[in-house]
């Protein structure tokens, strides 16, 4: 053990190999607090060459590696197991923007660049990097790529995998694959880039990426809309899509329970619509600086929606501050739910057409498992993706934890029966590795294992994550 | 040999195992006429189960398989080698549209569906399947997926890989992977779909797919524009992008030599602009049925372009027939060049900013190798993708063939030096398998070989294609 630690210190410098409990504490527990592991060391390389050196050293010594970005994942995929034998490889010191090319529409970055800093770098050349997440102030692009992150801009711009053109990856044996190409078209072999995106650190360590930039959309029209049902929200989505076309950039849903938690726990949050509603939608149109009329278009859509019974009322942001306040109602849910107490998180996709029925049918099934549960339902209805989280019955945190396996199984069974996905955007990590495989065919699991074995035959890259 | 033929006949029926020379002729020579092989048999299964049976039989017997769609590929990837020992597996009988869901925006099809028929099926529900190729009347979606086809709609909608949500694949051992999911978001493991897209039949046989549909765009504004240079075309592209935004659906370039060939060889073709120009652009805006003003927008853009010196003149289509005529000038080039005589084809991408310089610098380099060569240059300038084809000096077909290796090497060296791609959209096939690997790093080739070995350890799927 001393040998490998010495080797790591010579790779990255003594100051960047952390072993003291106080120093490693922030790296071994995940954001949700559910996964608390231990680490042989936390290593913080400052360059691709140092990452390669660290990975080669671990490969030689047979030591497992857990790559980590901003440690904001929700499925325990970025923290070590309890053995104390794994090395956490944190990319947090690699935060250079290597190149920005607004004409080609590309930006080349280190894996450790924080998502919000990437936004800033794109804005500096009048471009947009669209990916937007609640954790964007601390998550890193390397983590976003490793987990194929989603967020609130998927409806218009797609998942992370649709935003990447090329990657630089340190392979499990320490060799570096330089796939940093910014070409839109390159048909010269297997798509290695897409193989690494979403592989959750189990096939190698992403150290750099070429990403797509889009025209800036500084104009916004934003509304918080009270809708009677999920069905109405889906119909309103169709109306907004046909009327606002490519300008529609956000279409998020939240139930009243979710909004109540935000109003209760987030300082300064206030309800923009006086009459309470079972469901709400956050809708936003975005356009170029020259594009006028977004507010008018949104008002017209919402007027027609009220007339058609798809909406009861709506609050349109009249200023940037009001826009921020409306967004806070949506972005604050996860944090507010954490304050409220124990939560059982699910991140499911279903075909959009069956979303409403599914959500309605689920409640009595879960009530039967644990009376008094509070479904806090929100998410990206435009993508068919709900964060179907269960808060404990009031005062019943322990009961929720005891019933968790049964509740999750009921939800996953129902999702699988509807040909949905049990992880829309969070990935499998440690928390869903077993479930992920159990809902797949044997052929599919075999294929995944064959790929894992081909790239990481010694099984040292993030073991126990993604594949059980 | 009799054994395997009997086994194949029992799998698909006697009528669908072709062995007579006259019957197999159309399946063993590629569209360009460059690759003429022989086959043990051409097998034409009618269902996924029959494909699986055929592949299992070949796997047991150790017989290699060449999957084939519409046999319109340009790099010899869909025809057998000269050994006479390979089985051609033609998907042409599998042409059912299995499901269309306009609300979810998905269509599920057999691999053998012809691209034009897929267009028709989408139009029937007022939707668009955007991929558009010169060969769309005969190419199949399975071939498009296996080669990650490009075409004239990439600028707006992306390559084939961006249009697919799920696949059904018969693996090299005959097992079927059912990945026919139509979800926009599904983060439950490695992206198997993207691994098979673009793998050119070397990892398995694609038998079905779930594809994305888009809102229909029946309104068009189309112009043929005389531009002074590639540089001017790139600037015009920037202007059109900032002014027409998401409506810009086509931006194609062609040099005068290319247009001359079309005018000489295609019946009914006529030059819409009287004064000859070195370069031309085909530009098209497309919108929904309710969207007026596309013609006005295009006219305004072109007016400004003429004023800024980016264009000399332009012809705007005033009717659907005129639109078809303008498109024929672009789509007819490949056919016209075939009639003219020997052609050396290249399909390269470069960063858009360096495209003009690259194209200009290339001519004297090639002239030195073979005086009198005629560069017929056209393609998808919006994607940085040129079809940089060389027609022989007049009467010099043999000289061109003799100089071909030197000419191609000069082009590929220059593309590699500019961090471009030697195959933007045609794939590697047989013709570029060696070159494809030689311009990649050893690490990248090793990665590709590891994947090939993991999925097809016996090397029976399209051997010699993609990887040498």
UniProtKB/TrEMBL annotation, chains A, B:
This is FAD-binding oxidoreductase. Pfam families: FAD-oxidase_C (PF02913), FAD_binding_4 (PF01565). Signal peptide: none annotated. It comes from Nocardioides oleivorans. GO terms for molecular function: FAD binding; oxidoreductase activity. Its cofactor is FAD. Belongs to the FAD-binding oxidoreductase/transferase type 4 family. One of its GO terms (biological process) is respiratory electron transport chain. Residues 35-216 form the FAD-binding PCMH-type domain. Keywords: FAD, Flavoprotein, Oxidoreductase. PANTHER family: BLL6224 PROTEIN, D-2-HYDROXYGLUTARATE DEHYDROGENASE, MITOCHONDRIAL.
């Amino acid at each position: 053990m001393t040998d490998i630690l010495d080797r790591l210190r010579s790779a990255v410098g003594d100051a960047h190999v952390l072993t003291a409990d106080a120093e490693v504490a922030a790296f071994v527990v995940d954001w949700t607090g559910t996964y608390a592991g231990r680490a042989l060391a936390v290593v913080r390389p400052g360059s691709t060459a140092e990452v390669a050196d660290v990975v080669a050293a671990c490969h030689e010594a047979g030591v497992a590696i857990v790559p980590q970005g901003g440690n904001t994942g929700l499925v325990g995929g970025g923290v070590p197991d309890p053995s104390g034998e794994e090395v956490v490889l944190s990319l947090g010191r690699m935060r250079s923007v290597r190149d920005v090319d607004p004409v080609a529409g590309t930006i080349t970055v280190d894996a450790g660049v924080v998502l919000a800093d990437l936004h800033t770098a794109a804005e500096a050349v009048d471009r947009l990097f669209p990916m937007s997440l609640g954790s964007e102030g601390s998550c890193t692009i390397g983590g976003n790529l490793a987990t194929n992150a989603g967020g609130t801009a998927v409806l218009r711009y797609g998942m992370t995998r649709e935003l990447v053109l090329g990657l630089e990856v340190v392979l499990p044996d320490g060799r570096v694959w330089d796939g940093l190409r910014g070409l839109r078209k390159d048909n010269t072999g297997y798509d290695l880039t897409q193989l690494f995106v979403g592989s959750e650190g189990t096939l190698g360590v992403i150290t750099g990426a070429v990403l797509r930039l889009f025209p800036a959309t500084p104009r916004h029209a934003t509304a918080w809309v009270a809708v009677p049902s999920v069905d109405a929200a889906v119909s309103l989505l169709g109306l907004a899509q046909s009327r606002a076309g490519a300008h529609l950039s956000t279409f998020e849903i939240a139930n009243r329970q979710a909004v109540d938690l935000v109003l209760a726990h987030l300082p300064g949050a206030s309800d923009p619509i006086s009459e309470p509603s079972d469901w709400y939608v956050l809708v936003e149109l975005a356009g170029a600086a020259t594009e006028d009329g977004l507010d008018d278009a949104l008002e017209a859509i919402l007027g027609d929606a009220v007339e058609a019974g798809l909406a009861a009322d709506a609050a349109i942001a009249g200023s940037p501050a009001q826009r921020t306040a409306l967004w806070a109602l949506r972005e604050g849910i996860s944090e507010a739910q954490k304050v409220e107490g124990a939560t059982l998180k699910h991140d499911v996709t279903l075909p959009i057409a069956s979303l409403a029925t599914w959500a309605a049918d689920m409640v009595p099934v879960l009530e039967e498992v644990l009376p008094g549960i509070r479904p806090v339902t929100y998410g990206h209805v435009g993508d068919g993706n709900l964060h179907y989280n269960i808060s404990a019955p009031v005062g019943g945190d322990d009961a929720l934890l005891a019933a968790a396996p049964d509740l999750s199984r009921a939800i996953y069974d129902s999702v699988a029966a509807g040909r949905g996905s049990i992880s829309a955007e969070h990935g499998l990590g440690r928390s869903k590795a077993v479930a992920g495989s159990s809902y797949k065919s044997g052929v599919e699991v075999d294929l995944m294992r064959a790929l894992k074995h081909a790239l990481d035959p010694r099984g040292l890259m993030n073991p126990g994550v993604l594949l059980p």
